[in-house]
Design goal:
This protein is an alpha/beta fold and about 600 residues long. The chain folds into 3 domains: about 240 residues, Glutamine Phosphoribosylpyrophosphate, subunit 1, domain 1, CATH 3.60.20.10; about 190 residues, Glucose-6-phosphate isomerase like protein, domain 1 (Rossmann fold, 3-Layer(aba) Sandwich), CATH 3.40.50; about 140 residues, 3-Layer(aba) Sandwich (Rossmann fold), CATH 3.40.50.10490. The chain is about 35% helix and about 20% strand. The strands form 4 sheets. An 8-stranded antiparallel beta sheet has the order 3-2-4-1-10-9-11-14, with helices on one face. The chain has a 6-stranded antiparallel beta sheet with strand order 5-6-7-8-12-13. Strands 16-15-17-18-19 form a 5-stranded parallel beta sheet, with helices on both faces. The longest helix has 22 residues. The chain is globular. The termini are close together. The protein binds 6-O-phosphono-alpha-D-glucopyranose. The site of 6-O-phosphono-alpha-D-glucopyranose has 15 residues, from helix 9. The site of 6-O-phosphono-alpha-D-glucopyranose (G6P) has 15 residues, from helix 9.
Length: about 600
């Protein structure tokens, strides 16, 4: 989704900003642009193509400057055209980039048009530029501070003014913004990753903050305009993060990083204890009588999987809701319910809004499973478990998902223990399985050559069905999501028992049917469902546990999973589905890491 980079320095800031935009490309965008304050005027270059194209444009025009802002835009208000691309100008004086959505843009636009401002885009963003200009009286900070009081919705902005060529002002409300501290230079960015290689000293702005940066100064103010000291953190985790190494795509790299990501997520695990989720976890979890999981996308499927674990291992009732639905639904709160959010980024707008909605309904006990320790989600939840997947660049989530599952399994065990449902023997057995998990994942990754052979077949189809039962049904959903996200093949997942209630009508010899076949209590039922498919000529592609005795034969293609992994089986079974989606997309030649229309971190509603 949208990305911001800004810099004020004693050197030409164009290379820093282009590098920053490249680092933000993974978030998904459809246009980009850069504005510079140079020799007393504002210059701008924008493109509806990739950052590399913008770079050519900028170099071709020999643009340079000591003060600049840049942006990648993911269209919300107005098509991805050059006119709608950021930075937006107000006259020749103000230039601005914006992440988020301004909900009251129509009212403000009418007001500003009445004052004589002429709009050159359909965006909600342009109103902010004109609003700041209308309030400008020689002090950019003051103009921004009074403008933000008029804005409704979510925003992170970076603003420069032709008349103050060594100053940049930023503000955040609902969308992330960080300050990078350099030697006699300062930066703004929507994600610290954009500044990797430029500075590792980062300040995370808080909700309602405004910031005023120049060469040597950085002043931060809270929502009331009071000076607000914020901690400078040294963020070094990003070193080398943008290197592909031997891989062709970040998605492939991240699939293969899963053994390491899971072992990092389990690092230091000595036993099952509530403190894994924070110091105050025990009393909160003791009082919990049910769980509400809120999430979006792949994280939602992690939640659906966790429901099976929590209900069976901890015997606690669990509801899992899509955050964008829950936040607007008339639901029944329960005071002793623990609200669990799951989010890779910790900044997904709908998940944050759903968490706040639950809190407004009186459900104050919250826990998040999140991959970004500095995110809004972690700040807003009482308890947390930080997955240590490392930065995930590919839009299609892979290592974030399996580390979320790992953390959710731990949570199920902790709740089970508190509720007296985990014997020491069971705990020891689970610990052993968890410790061995990275090795088990590595063994599944070794199936890649067999999966490549299947990908050729899949690439020729326009539809696919995914079947799973029980705890592997959410894994089938995740497999179908992966395939559609990056190969653009229409894919649907069903619990296999539902086949005859509709989807069987779609099955012909042209329909590949991916089947997840663990050796569990539902295996015989699943085999009957497979026969239903075969009887209609459907081609089955089965990932079968080694002890299932499902054999390859006419119309049934089988890849054997190295071992049956009991309750943790979903973590292993999702991996071949990730690889299948990846290799099918490769054959089809799609942009694997940046699939069309999608964004990595969805910070708008
Ligand atoms: C986007 C991403 C998905 C992700 C979802 C939720 O749609 O493309 O990969 O699952 O957002 O994101 P979160 O950061 O909250 O897990």
């Amino acid at each position: 989704m949208c990305g911001i980079v800004g810099a004020v320095a004693k050197r030409n800031v164009v290379p820093v900003m282009l590098e920053g935009l490249k680092r933000l490309e993974y978030r998904g965008y459809d246009s980009c642009g850069i504005a510079l304050c140079t020799e007393g005027h504002l210059e701008r270059s924008r493109s509806t193509s990739r950052v590399a194209e913008l770079e050519k444009q900028v170099n071709g025009r020999h643009l340079s400057g000591f003060l600049g802002i840049a942006h990648t835009r993911w269209a919300t208000h107005g098509a991805p055209t050059t006119d709608n691309a950021h930075p937006h100008f107000s006259g020749e004086r103000i230039a601005l980039v914006h992440n988020g959505i301004i909900e009251n843009h129509a009212v403000l636009r009418a007001e500003l048009e009445a004052k004589g401002y002429v709009f050159s885009s359909q965006t909600d963003t342009e109103v902010i530029a004109h609003l700041i200009d209308s309030l400008y009286q020689g002090d950019l900070l003051k103009a921004v501070q009074s403008a933000v009081t008029r804005l409704r919705g979510a925003f992170a902005i970076a603003v420069i003014c032709r008349d103050e060529p060594q100053r940049m002002v930023g503000a955040r409300q609902g969308s992330p913004l960080v300050v990078g501290i350099g030697e006699n230079e300062h930066f703004l960015a929507s994600d610290a990753l954009a500044l990797a290689g430029t500075t590792d000293r980062i300040v995370y702005l808080e909700e309602g903050d405004t910031v005023d940066i120049s060469l040597n100064d950085c002043h931060i103010y809270d929502a009331q305009g009071r000076p607000a000291p914020r901690e400078v953190r040294v963020v070094s985790v990003y070193a080398g993060v943008s290197e592909l190494g031997p891989y062709r795509h970040f998605m492939q790299k991240e699939i293969f990083e899963q053994p390491r990501a899971i072992s990092d997520t389990l690092q230091g695990l000595a036993g099952i204890s509530p403190e894994l989720f924070g110091d105050g976890a025990l009393p909160i979890l003791q009082q919990t009588d049910s769980i509400l999981i809120l999430a979006c996308g792949t994280s939602y499927y992690a939640g659906l999987t966790a429901k099976y674990w929590m209900e069976s291992i901890a015997r606690i009732p669990v509801e899992v809701e899509i955050a964008s639905e829950y936040r607007y639904r008339d639901s029944v709160p329960s005071p002793n319910r623990l609200v669990v959010t799951i989010s890779q980024s910790g900044e997904t707008a709908d998940t944050l809004a759903a968490l706040r909605h639950a809190r407004d309904l009186g459900m104050n006990r919250s826990l998040t499973i999140c991959n970004v320790a500095t995110s809004a989600m972690v700040r807003e939840c009482a308890l947390s478990y930080i997955t240590r997947a490392g930065v995930e660049i590919g839009v299609a989530s892979t290592k974030a998902f399996t580390t979320q599952l790992t953390a959710l399994f731990l949570l199920s065990l902790v709740i089970a223990k508190i509720r007296g449902r985990l014997t020491p023997e069971q705990e020891a057995a689970h610990m052993k399985s968890l410790r061995h998990l990275p090795v088990a994942v590595s063994a599944v990754l070794a199936l890649e050559p067999q999966i490549i052979a299947w990908a050729e077949d899949f690439s020729r189809h326009n539809d696919a069905l995914f079947l799973g039962r029980g705890i592997h049904y959410p894994i089938a959903l995740e497999g179908a999501l992966k395939l559609k996200e990056i190969s653009y093949i229409h894919a649907e997942a069903y619990p296999a028992g539902e086949l005859k209630h509709g989807p069987l009508a779609l099955v012909t010899d042209k329909m590949p049917v991916v089947t997840i076949a663990p050796n569990d209590d539902l295996l015989e039922k699943l085999k009957s469902n497979m026969q239903e498919v075969r009887a209609r000529g459907g081609q089955l592609y089965v990932f079968a546990d080694s002890d299932t005795r499902i054999m390859s034969q006419e119309g049934i293609h089988v890849i054997r999973m190295p071992e049956n992994y009991g309750q943790l089986s979903p973590i292993l079974h999702v991996i071949p589905l990730q690889l299948l989606a990846y290799h099918t997309a490769l054959v089809r030649g799609t942009d694997v890491d940046k699939p069309r229309n999608l964004a990595k971190s969805v910070t708008v509603e």
